[in-house]
């Protein structure tokens, strides 16, 4: 079992023939991911990377049975692409696109409310189940099949955590990059819940950052759940000046509860093993699991 994507997932790429879609779809195929086709309006009937191109997601689903879509569509058109995927019956919609207007995401969030699908992102590195499916822009070579899940707002810190877990011999089940925008499809709590409910995940790394309340919400849910699985946490942005956006659109301190210090305190109160440096993530998890790093 795995979370969100696995070797049986049938994946299409929206924005397939563009430069970003082409490069990353090629990397996904090289990893062995089951990419069954792609969508670029006006180019239906063509072949790209030895996969069929369709004009619409509905056509792609009808012909390939696709159940996962990854979106590399430019920001101005990304909201329409997400809603099109949902309408076509795609179950997991992974949106890589950065810079989607907040008003568009408000509309998308509302639109997806009654749809039978899950969106991850936007502005995220994707989802990867080690050894099975790379759906996004994560570097496949640092992954090793294992039993530790990773949830992160930060792409770069996702890779850092994954690399450390591999080096201490633990490996990963699924890594979920939830994205750093103010409005995203899957919250930190929802992603952590997926992994804690996965029988093939023995522990979770949870990486957050300043801004918003996702980390405290997730921490309180974790405490209430009574889980026995070890959780290692890290919050980025401890030295960020108050009121300044740092990299991600959602990484801005709006009040005293949005700071790194406040979030870390809440996480510790809820039983999460918080490290003060990202360099300690792998070693801390190895210690908790009982593996010699």
TrEMBL record:
Keywords: Ligase, Nucleotide-binding, Tricarboxylic acid cycle. It comes from the Bacteria. One of its GO terms (molecular function) is nucleotide binding. Gene3D superfamilies: NAD(P)-binding Rossmann-like Domain, Succinyl-CoA synthetase domains. CoA binds at residues 17-20, 43, 96-98. The keyword Ribosomal protein does not apply. The keyword rRNA processing does not apply. Pfam families: CoA_binding, Ligase_CoA. Belongs to the succinate/malate CoA ligase alpha subunit family. This is Succinate--CoA ligase [ADP-forming] subunit alpha.
